[in-house]
Amino acid sequence: MAKGSTKKERNVKKGLSEEESRYRGLFEYSPISLWEEDFTALKSFFDDLQKKGVKDFRKYFEGHPEAVEKCAGIVNVIDVNKRTLDLYKAKSKKELLLGLPKVFGEESFPVFREEIIALAEGKTTFESEAVNKTLKGDRIGIRLSLAVAPGYEGTLFKVFVSILDITKRKRAEAALNRRLKVEETITGVSSRFVNVTDMDTAITATLADMGTLSGASRSYLFKLRDEQRMMDNTHEWCSKGVESQKENLQGLPSDMLPWWMSKLMKQELIHITDVSELPKEAAAEREILEEQDIKSLLVLPVLVGGELSGFLGFDNVEDIGEWSEENVTLLRVGAEIIGNALERQRSEEALRESEQRIRLLFDCAPVGILTSDKTGTILAVNPAILKILGSPSAEATKAINLLTFPPLVDAGVSADFRQCLDTGEITVSEHPYTTAWGKKIHLRYHLSPIKDEDGTVARVLAVVEDFTALKEAQDALRTSEELFRAIFDRSAVGIARMHLDGRIFETNLALQRFFGYSGDELRGKLVFDLSHPEDMLKDYALLKEMVDGKRDHYQIEKRFFKKNGSEVRGNLNASMMHDPTGKPEFIVAVVEDITERKNAK
Prior knowledge:
- This protein is α+β, with helices and mostly antiparallel strands.
- The chain folds into 4 domains: 24-165, 2-Layer Sandwich (Beta-Lactamase); 175-348, Beta-Lactamase (2-Layer Sandwich); 365-473, Beta-Lactamase, CATH 3.30.450.20; 491-600, Beta-Lactamase (2-Layer Sandwich), CATH 3.30.450.
- 45% of the residues lie in helices and 26% in strands.
- It contains 22 helices and 21 strands.
């Protein structure tokens, strides 16, 4: 009986041994990091705190960081598996255990504090994400899961911890967040320049946004002037602790940076990863940059109207190294936005100058000009109309109502004004008329309706001449038209007139020779059909902006195809032509053949 019992015991022991071996294998070769830990010392520490009257463990541990450090030192790691050694790049368990202070550094401290708070409050499970380091110092993202083994809740003698490597996921999330941040920055920069009232502030804020996101130490804008011979640092942003250079970089000759400027003139990006390794031809640039302690930098051309107007620079005074493709894209977009804003500013300044010229034209025009509201009340008159009418003053002229003054009614002038107001159409007419001051004249006038946003005629603009002045103007106009026709037909550069969709309806001989087509063959063709595919989209975008009223002209250097399939290059200048009401009517395109010049290069 005893003999049989001994055999049974041996079988039980053998089964237990096999089961233990199986579970040991599962532990040791698990694909995730597994830890077996003994927290009995921690449990005793928690019990002692409770005896001392500590009830709010969160408040206690958040207020006593030294207690958290003490807890970290009394955790007993019983065992770890092979995956743990691989994850933390340890050669042995002993090496890992000795290096735990390095593995669980300052970045892990907040998570460990939450872990011991959970255990102190009686929880038996805990999960969180943290950042650890390998023994070689590499940062890794982890997902930590802790569970107290059943039956050990009162002692915390057996606690199991699994650690999942989520480094790739965290990097992907960081990359996505950065991409979103880049897109957000670009959107913010773009919106900043919509209806901008303070261009300088907008540019400086944009330099700050792009400099901060790209990790630059300093970002800046230089503007070229005096036909690109001089340059000034007009705007600047510096990160904390970086010294401003703006005041020292005013009125500089462009040729002090020959290598730099040659690249910018070609509209090339300058990407310097290490200033100390600049080529010999950039010796002047290297000396200047090293004087400012610049280690690496990125410089992008700023184009206004297709021409180099300045450049954006992004310096790093701390480290050498390449600027990421993402940063290059961000900064390139920023340079384009600032360039477009400067171009718009230049256009607005030109518009203001135009308005001043219009005011000057109004006051000094040799023809009479007046405006009236829809009741016939005269709102404004220029000096010429006072002279035409023989009026003693603007006030005396404004006292006359265009719709009810009897001499104007009798002459048929009032009816023309009424027709313009009622129909909203341009009215051109002429009538003999004796003014209120006894002057007999033969009026010829051009009445243009001025409409509100809802399309209602609110005012009338009248351009008034006497017969003699009109004849002179007509003769001058006829001469001008003949001159334009002569220029169009005999010009050495190609000229085309196009519909708003880019469809050609008239060309001169020079353009026909440029493309190798006859005038009839060109008529009806889209200008994009003649374009090189790589240049077509940019040309189409500029044309659309002009049709949409965002610009009145543009210039672009592009490639075309002749009828025989050969490639030619042209400098295209396109301008919008308007009808008398200001409505876009057609486009005039002038094409200069630069093929030989480009081939010579």
